[in-house]
UniProtKB/TrEMBL annotation:
It comes from Paenibacillus sp. SYP-B3998. This is Cobalamin biosynthesis protein CobD. InterPro entries: Cobalamin_biosynth_CobD/CbiB. One of its GO terms (cellular component) is plasma membrane. The chain crosses the membrane at residues 68-89, 165-187, 217-236, 306-329. GO terms for molecular function: ABC-type vitamin B12 transporter activity; threonine-phosphate decarboxylase activity. Pfam families: CobD_Cbib. It comes from the Bacteria.
Length: 330
């Protein structure tokens, strides 16, 4: 597999999970995702510059073509840069190659980062500081948060953590195991494109079309693996319902506008016995989202703790699987 054997890739992926558990996702200036984001903004500015000041803007098909250029250039450059970096490090010293690959894989996952972001909201919620909780909720969701109460802030955080179990954990690990650090970064570039230009608003509906669709393709298999993992985690954790989690995926996942995000959100909603989805407000405009799960009880900040436990439970199960593979090899 690329520069390393499958056993080495499994070992480096397991080590990357440990690095993320301990260090997390620091916002260093050298973090690869920061460079990817800068590249996306630079290419976007160049591609859109031609139409600035024109009386007639680019057509939808022209914007889609430019969006394809952005998406292809970003994922290929990310892949090739990491491949070159790993190859260079390995050429200098074998252990340096292992260290660089492990670190790069760890930058594509965000287990600790998700936990920290969720607890930034739950901590002030526990003390009744709604103003502080609203501020931190606004950091992780795009909806208006000024008027949200505890139940709605809880929903926002639980939805975000559940969805990102795919984007920030299982998908990058899935691609790391297939192709090491280069393919993991290929995925992270795809996901960063979607988060930056994959919106269905007037500005990005056409220009971000390719990025959004490609992210859907990349997450298709990992999202379904995540659903299975969440059911298994619900089976292991007291107070959660694996049966209800599985049933919720079958009943509600297809209602979500995303072909992938509905799976983890439905799984979590079913396991916790709460309802996710509902009315969101974006820039003062109300938007009704599909309701997932059953409102068997009211949501509370306790659900943030529970979904974080599910997040870590999934990472523990994956780590256990990787260690079993390594032990069987040894």
């Amino acid at each position: 597999m690329w520069l390393y054997s499958w056993q080495e890739i499994v070992a480096m992926t397991a080590a990357a999970i440990c690095v993320d558990w301990i260090i997390g996702d620091p916002k260093w200036p050298t973090h690869p995702v920061i460079f990817i984001g800068r590249w996306i903004r630079w290419v976007e500015s160049k591609l859109r510059k031609e139409s600035e000041g024109r009386a007639v803007s680019d057509s939808g098909s022209q914007l889609k073509a430019k969006g394809v250029v952005l998406a292809v250039s970003t994922v290929l450059l990310s892949f090739l840069m990491v491949l070159a970096l790993v190859w260079t490090a390995r050429s200098i010293n074998e252990w340096l190659g292992y260290i660089v690959s492990t670190w790069l894989i760890s930058t594509t996952i965000a287990i600790k980062g998700l936990k920290d972001a969720a607890f930034l909201v739950s901590t002030p919620l526990r003390s009744g500081n709604l103003v502080e909780a609203r501020k931190y909720t606004g950091y992780i969701v795009g909806r208006d948060t000024e008027q949200l109460g505890e139940e709605e802030m809880t929903r926002a955080v639980v939805e975000t953590v559940a969805e990102n179990i795919v984007d920030a954990v299982i998908s990058p690990l899935f691609y790391a195991l297939i192709g090491g650090a280069p393919l993991a970064m290929f995925y992270r570039a795809s996901n960063t494109l979607d988060s930056m230009v994959g919106y269905r608003n007037d500005k990005y509906r056409h220009f971000g079309w390719a990025s959004a669709r490609w992210d859907d393709v990349m997450n298709w298999i990992p999202a379904r693996l995540t659903g299975l993992l969440l059911i298994f985690v619900a089976l292991l954790q007291p107070g959660l319902s694996a049966k209800r989690s599985a049933t919720a995926i079958r009943c509600f996942a297809h209602l979500h506008p995303s072909p992938n995000s509905g799976i983890p959100e439905s799984a979590v909603a079913g396991a916790l016995g709460i309802e996710l989805g509902g009315l969101n407000v974006y820039g003062g405009v109300a938007s009704e989202r599909a309701r997932l799960g059953w409102p068997l009880r009211e949501r509370s900040q306790r659900d943030i703790v529970l979904v974080v436990r599910m997040l870590y439970g999934v990472s523990f199960v994956v780590m256990g699987g990787l260690l079993c593979v390594l032990l069987a090899w040894l």
